[in-house]
Write a structure and sequence with these properties.
InterPro entries: F-box-like_dom_sf, Hemimethylated_DNA-bd_dom, Hemimethylated_DNA-bd_sf, SirB1_N. With about 550 residues, the chain is of the alpha+beta class. The protein is built from 23 helices and ten strands.
């Protein structure tokens, strides 16, 4: 055994080793040889060398055997969840494919630095070309993700550039998978669209680097449901909700429903201390279900998703109501569905489950509304409102890096659900134009806007003209102008190329790669960016900077 573990030189001699009785080690039963070759100290390179030493060991190390299964599980434990427990698998083939994917990904990432900042500063564009070879391998997507996570989890002090781009690629790939899932979600019939699942997809898209799953969220809600049942049992030991039953079976008896709602409020708001976040209402974390469950605080719509789901698990049907400024749930007080708004009790999940009449709902927002606002809405409309909240938070962010990312993410989500919304298509085009990314996509968006609403030709024409100029400039860059800070006309320029800076207002980190003694942008850009509100306005040095999120900005001194 010592010879087996002694290193590469000893492994080549394994077939020649004899035990005390003169037997060769290769004469041992296959099960025992497999046990020896699964010793933790042996690497995949060792096993490959051993399997070439003789036919006997080659047969023991066959692709579907325990030796290569052990090597695969030892090296990539995160991938085991993708294999069924008793599945017969060619582990050697899986090992080779996973190894090839890893090498190809590292090769692609290493070429990112120059292309990302010089050619096309957008992950989506670069990946379109870089991952064609990966697709030709026919490898599952989770192999790519596992390699990226391996890079991110390696020694923190090494490979920082590799990790930077690995993080960007992982962010992008996970978001693309969520968009596919979201399109599949809305491809179902409305009665098959679960609000909880849709809200989790939104959460996953906006937080692609977090480990969020519908299973983990559902498991936490099951724990809360168990607590509610325990409370319910004290008041009514024979309550039908205590029996294991299908979630789709709803109770008709209003007395039994009231007992469920009472127990739900007691557990959620008194025992677990869930509450509406009044002090930090516009924090995007209030909209993400995994954060709402962790922090036990949210806004009306996110708390309504939880409340609605818990009630349904216990046999009570509640419906979402897209009430102005304050999302609500409604609960019918008749045995049959009714169109009369006064036949419903309205539940304020933000206000600790308080039950309101139709008139009291108007007091909640301070003005009267028509009966249309009391109607139940579809899951799609509910999710659009949730994404709309995130969009508004992104707009309020005053140009910070996080707000730009939230704005991009929420626009992607909104336009996936409602692809023909001209207002948000135009906002997306302007955002991409402002950030200097993906000019070809900007042109596609503008063409789509023109087809949907020809009256937008003014805004579309301006953006088309300047986007084409950007593409032309990129394909035929002008000779760099030689400027010296020491020259008299540049005496006010304080920062030199190459300095790493932090933006005072927006807070992003960046590196200076160029400067102008005065702002060189057009009047419309100056007006849009409110440059005149700055001290000295456009008559001060402006710097071209590369921001840590991969975008280029033009910032005043």
């Amino acid at each position: 055994m010592a010879a087996v573990c002694g290193g590469d030189g000893c492994l080549g001699l394994i077939g020649q080793i004899s035990d005390a009785h003169g037997k060769k080690l290769t004469d041992l039963p296959a099960e025992l040889l497999e046990f020896i070759l699964c010793f933790p100290a042996l690497s995949y390179f060792d096993i490959a060398s051993v399997s070439c030493s003789c036919k006997r060991l080659h047969d023991v190390c066959h692709g579907r055997g325990k030796v290569w299964e052990h090597q695969y599980k030892l090296r990539w434990p995160r991938l085991l969840k993708y294999y069924r427990q008793l599945e017969c698998c060619d582990w050697l083939k899986e090992f080779r494919t996973r190894q090839s994917v890893g090498l190809q990904i590292r090769k692609s990432i290493k070429s990112f630095s120059k292309r990302f900042f010089v050619e096309v500063p957008c992950v989506g564009q670069v990946l379109g070309d870089s991952f064609k070879e990966l697709e030709s391998l026919g490898a599952p997507e989770h192999f790519c993700e596992d390699e990226l996570i391996s890079i991110l989890n390696s020694d923190k002090r090494k490979g920082l550039t590799l990790k930077y781009y690995a993080k960007k690629i992982l962010y992008f790939l996970r978001q693309q998978n969520v968009l596919k899932s979201l399109k599949g979600f809305f491809g179902r019939s409305p009665d098959q669209q679960c609000p909880l699942e849709g809200a989790v997809l939104i959460d996953q898209y906006c937080n692609p680097l977090a480990e969020i799953s519908l299973e983990s969220i559902s498991a936490q809600l099951e724990e809360i449901t168990a607590k509610i049942k325990k409370t319910l049992q004290v008041k009514n030991p024979t309550h039908p909700s205590l029996r294991e039953a299908d979630e789709d079976v709803l109770m008709e008896d209003l007395v039994l429903q009231r007992q469920v709602v009472c127990a739900l409020n007691s557990v959620l708001y008194e025992q677990l201390q869930y509450k509406g976040n009044e002090s930090d209402y516009y924090n995007p974390l209030n909209s993400y279900l995994h954060q709402v469950l962790t922090r036990r605080t949210g806004i009306p719509i996110s708390l309504s998703v939880l409340y609605l789901t818990l009630a349904k698990k216990l046999g009570v049907k509640l419906e979402p109501v897209n009430f102005p400024n304050h999302f609500l749930l409604r609960w019918c007080q008749r045995s049959e569905r009714s169109s009369d708004i006064y036949d419903y009790v309205y539940i304020d999940a933000f206000g600790k489950g308080k039950q309101l009449t139709a008139k009291e709902c108007e007091y909640l927002i301070g003005h009267q509304v028509t009966s249309d606002y009391y109607s139940a809405v579809s899951t799609e409309e509910m999710l659009l409102r949730m994404v709309g909240n995130l969009l508004n938070i992104g707009k309020r962010g005053e140009g910070s890096e996080k707000s730009y990312q939230l704005l991009r993410d929420s626009l992607d989500l909104y336009l996936t659900i409602n692809p023909d919304n001209v207002q948000y298509l135009l906002l997306q085009a302007r955002l991409y134009f402002h950030l200097g990314i993906w000019p070809e996509k900007v042109l596609d968006i503008l063409q789509h806007i023109q087809a949907l609403d020809p009256s937008q030709h003014g805004a579309v024409g301006y953006l088309v003209q300047h986007t084409l100029e950007h593409i032309q400039h990129k394909s035929h860059p002008a000779e760099p102008e030689v400027k010296r800070r020491s020259d008299q006309e540049n005496r006010e320029v304080q920062y030199s190329t190459g300095l790493i800076m932090r933006h005072k207002r927006s807070g992003y980190n960046c590196v200076v790669y160029g400067w102008d003694a005065k702002c060189t942008m057009g009047l419309e850009w100056i007006t849009t960016m409110r440059v005149h509100q700055l001290p000295n306005g456009p008559d001060q040095p402006f710097y071209s900077v590369l921001v840590q999120d991969g975008t280029s900005r033009y910032a005043a001194q």
